[in-house]
């Protein structure tokens, strides 16, 4: 009986461990794909404001219209469109100013904007490599740098703010080679993982936790071309140890976890979301 009483005394109430009630989030590349899935998850977990940004104003507005139509978000919760080109520092600075018109702080920053380019080694253009590195790496750094004051505003030891960046399993292993090689993309995603490791140490003492996601294949506009070359979604799913591709709830749950109290001691980590593919070779076909 004494042992049982001792065990009961050690039990904790974990109610609301994944809740984000009242939190404010900003998502770059949030108008479609992984960013939109994450926005949906954040709103349904209780966020009061989620700012959606991408280059195209219409896409931002359409995404926010869909998010604001969700029936199970908190009363008064809202998605706010703020179009901006994350590849330009001046645009990121403008984005911060626009966000400040609605809030004096940010709790969650999801740097998700990205691009890829496929071309064989001999003709892989310098301009494409530079574009991918600029958007996938430099803009992640610049976005976190410019939003850091807002992330610090209400961050505490007990309730730290979060900065999350989208990397990829292509940054952990050999990606696509051959006629559609993605050298810049693979290098950029490896750089994102290491960048977030560095920022975790730099910003952790400021109560900003920095982590990255390393997704495998999720059906999306960016991935559709490569998936088609490999043989399509059905064939690709069969090569996955988990027997399927990524689903919207997979990315949404990962972002909610890292943003919530459940992830409050996770810093400088990369969370792989690929069903186990990174243990081998994508579809067994890295040369396309």
Describe this structure as you would to a colleague:
- The chain is α/β, with parallel strands linked by helices and 288 residues long.
- The chain has a domain at 40-47 and 102-284: Rossmann fold, CATH 3.40.50.
- 42% of the residues lie in helices and 12% in strands.
- The protein has helices at 2-10, 33-44, 57-68, 89-100, 126-152, 183-203, 221-230, 233-238, 248-259, and strands at 24-28, 49-53, 78-81, 108-111, 161-166, 208-215, 270-273.
- It has a seven-stranded parallel beta sheet with strand order 3-2-1-4-5-6-7, sandwiched between helices.
- α2 (33-44) packs across α9 (248-259).
- The longest helix has 27 residues, at 126-152.
- GO terms for molecular function: oxidoreductase activity.
List the helices and strands and how they pair.
Blueprint: H1 2-10, E1 24-28, H2 33-44, E2 49-53, H3 57-68, E3 78-81, H4 89-100, E4 108-111, H5 126-152, E5 161-166, H6 183-203, E6 208-215, H7 221-230, H8 233-238, H9 248-259, E7 270-273
Helix pairs in contact: 2-9, 4-5, 5-6
């Amino acid at each position: 009986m004494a042992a049982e009483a001792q065990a009961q005394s050690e039990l904790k109430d974990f109610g609301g461990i994944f809740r984000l009630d009242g939190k404010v989030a900003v998502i770059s590349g949030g108008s479609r794909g992984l960013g939109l899935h994450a926005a949906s998850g954040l709103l349904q977990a209780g966020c009061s404001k989620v700012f959606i940004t991408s280059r195209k104003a219409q896409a931002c507005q359409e995404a926010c219209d869909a998010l604001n139509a969700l029936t199970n978000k908190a009363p008064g919760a809202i998605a706010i469109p703020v179009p901006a080109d994350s590849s330009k520092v001046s645009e990121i600075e403008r984005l911060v100013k626009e966000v400040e018109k609605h809030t004096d702080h940010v709790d969650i920053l999801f740097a998700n904007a990205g691009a890829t380019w496929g071309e064989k080694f001999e003709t892989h253009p310098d301009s494409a490599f530079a574009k991918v590195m600029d958007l996938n790496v430099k803009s992640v750094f610049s976005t976190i740098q410019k939003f850091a004051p807002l992330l610090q505003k209400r961050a505490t030891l007990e309730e730290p703010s979060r900065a999350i960046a989208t990397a990829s399993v292509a940054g952990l292993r050999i990606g696509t080679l051959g006629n559609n090689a993605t050298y810049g993309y693979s290098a950029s995603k490896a750089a994102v993982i290491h960048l977030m490791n560095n920022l975790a140490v730099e910003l952790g003492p400021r109560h900003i936790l920095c982590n990255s996601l390393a997704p495998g294949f999720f059906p999306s506009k960016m991935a559709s071309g490569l998936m088609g070359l490999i043989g399509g979604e059905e064939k690709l799913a069969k090569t996955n140890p988990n027997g399927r591709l990524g689903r919207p709830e997979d990315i949404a749950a990962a972002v909610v976890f890292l943003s919530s109290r459940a992830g409050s001691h996770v810093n400088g980590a990369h969370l792989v979301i690929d069903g186990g593919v990174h243990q081998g070779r994508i579809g067994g076909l890295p040369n396309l």
